[in-house]
Design goal:
With 226 residues, the chain is mainly beta. Helix content is 11%, strand content 42%. The protein contains 4 helices and 8 strands. InterPro entries: DUF481.
Length: 226
Amino acid sequence: MLVALWLALAAPPVFIAPLPDSPGEPAAVALAAGRVDLRRPCYRLACEDAAWQAPNRFTRIERAKAPGSVDPLARIRMPVLATRRYPLYSPASRRDWRVTHGSHSRFTAGFGYEAVRTPDTSVRFEFGTGYRLQPYADYGTAMEGPIARGRLELRQNIADRALLTQNLLVETGKFNTTTRQVIGLDLELLPQWTLQSNFELRHDSAGNGGSGATDTESSLNLRYRF
């Protein structure tokens, strides 16, 4: 008796009329049986709270084509920022460069090129010409005048904790040719401790009375990185 009185007072006349989802029975009976849901449908692909989300200015909702079916979503016009295409761009460093040097000992200009570039190996060389002002300075030739100067650099990872380096410097002038070669091996003992060894060879074609002279030098250092 109390339930019928509450429905008569609280429910408007349209609530008693049959719903489109259940045309054969009154709305109150369909709701009580759970065959009709008054919740408005969700128009999002992912509905976290299963609630209806109001359309924004990029969404247009169409009417359902048949009773009981889910209202379809029309095509969404994406914002301008979302439709822009940003191509992936990762510029690589150049393999060639220019070489210039000016000091009290010499003036030189030339170019350099990296012939090999891999994660474990790097081979670079430089070549240029210039004028020597001070003899034998900076591992140079024995007289002032025009010179040609070249350098070769090699870096090779021979193990996980071992690095091999080699530098070859050659300078030639009108009187003699000088050569300097340095070979180094670095071993990482611990993350902060490195054992560095170098072997250096220097050759002067005009040394020892014109027959050529060669000097060697080696060093072993233990380096700690703070």
